[in-house]
Specification:
The chain has ten helices and six strands. It has a single domain, classed as Rossmann fold (3-Layer(aba) Sandwich). Helix 3 crosses helix 8, helix 8 packs antiparallel against helix 9 and helix 9 runs antiparallel to helix 10. Strands 1, 2, 3, 4, 5 and 6 form a six-stranded mixed beta sheet that branches. It has 240 residues and is α/β, with parallel strands linked by helices.
Length: 240
Amino acid sequence: MRRRRSFLRPTGMLLALVAAAARLPSQQRDSSPLIGALPFTNSIVGSERAALDPLVSGVPELLLIELSRNPDVRTVEPARVRRVLASQKRDPQARIDDEAATRIGRILGAQWMILGSFTSDGRGTLRVAASLVNVESGQAEHSASAEGKQANLAGLTGQLAEHLGRDLHLAGLPQDSRRARDLAQKASYETTMAFARAIEARDAGRVQQAIAMLQTLVSGHPEYEPAQNELRRLHSDPAR
């Protein structure tokens, strides 16, 4: 009898260790920072303002896509952000300050919220700026900006995401993620703006229009991963 008990005890310990090891990746994932992004402010004055308005939704979407490539990060679904903005009766086009971002972040259970704006000099140069608000402290603790030719819109948003990732001390991307990132950041201005327009339509509740726009984009540019992934998500979303 004693021998049997002494045999069972180590076996039980071994099973417990195996179960703990199986849970570890999930626990590590749950401890990763949860990041949300709010609509960016269109600070352009002049004739370009309306043409670039899709970036209000498009830039934060692209930033989340880039940040989510890192396995050390979790991102808030944009639909959840829209629901909270609606419940708070906030105009998505209105400027959001640190206090409002903190309040929204707490509702979402996020650790960080991204705020930002973009402007243009009217001669083809675009400047995109973003800050990371620490939801616990209520303060913007990190900020970054990227400036360059408007034609390099995809590259500018990629640069901004990389700045924010370094501020958060994120590890380097796996090789497959780096390849996908590099390909997305080489997308043309027309492709990136077409994606931003589709995201703008989605955020305005015109989901079928967004799907049609994404289908057209994927048909012409099947290698553009952000459009592929969003189209797949919208098709599989029963709430659309």
